[in-house]
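Blinded run. Sample ID left blank on purpose so nobody reads anything into the name before looking at the predicted structure. Input follows.
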Amino acid sequence: MDSNLITVLFKVSLAIFIAGNLLDMGLRLKPRHAVLGLKNYYFVGHTLFWGFVAGPLLAFAITLMIPLQDSFAMGLVFLGMTPGVPFLPMIIHRVKGDLGYTAAFMLLVSVTAVFYIPLVVPFLFEGQSVSAWMIARPLLLVMFLPLLAGMLINRFSETFAFNAYPVVKKITVLFTVLACGFGALKYGGGVGESDISMAIVSIVIFFFVLTTFPYWFGFGLMHKEKIILSLGMSTRNLGAAIAPVLAMDTVDEGAVIMIGLGHPAMLLFAWIAT
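Blinded prediction complete.
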């Protein structure tokens, strides 16, 4: 298959995968359930600190301590800025966590990421011809708008949201598989050609710290809140992490590979955390 066609199919599949996940989340996210968590200033403060201060700083510190290719370092930093996998509520449900605080967490990190990433990325990667709007545009289209649409549907018609959820879920799963397949075709060869040993070490350190430290140092929080914080930080929104890479003039293959390595790592650490 033509390489350019694979690239287009990968980007389209990825966009639908990201949008589907956020629409899916919005259909199940009841703002009134999130109010309690958002009123807990300790919880909000810890979420913003670990998600958008400690996470990016940790990723950057690891790139200074461990010799990584520049492209792998870029991918790790993007992972550091995108906490909270969209299917986090499913994980929390399995461990019988507080779904109200989960809703607060997901709403907070999703909305913050949409505005945070476009402001930070142009300063971090000055060599790239990328503007804040170039980064913000795909995040608004495939994250913020689907999330908002899902929440509005849920707000005005819970019955419609309930009936639409299984359809959206099936479509999202389909395009998840397609995105993984086209991504493997496009970038899988680069894995064998690169020395990823240090990249794997970096990923393991990154996820270990963000799984354990938010729980250990979750001062002022109860166990039910700490476990949401820990699981939320031990998972990453890979779609949000890869969107800025694809928005750049030249897609960095190594950054895509690094973000891809985050998938098995976050599943492993989320499993350990549960």
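Unblinding after everyone has recorded impressions. The chain has a mean pLDDT of 85.
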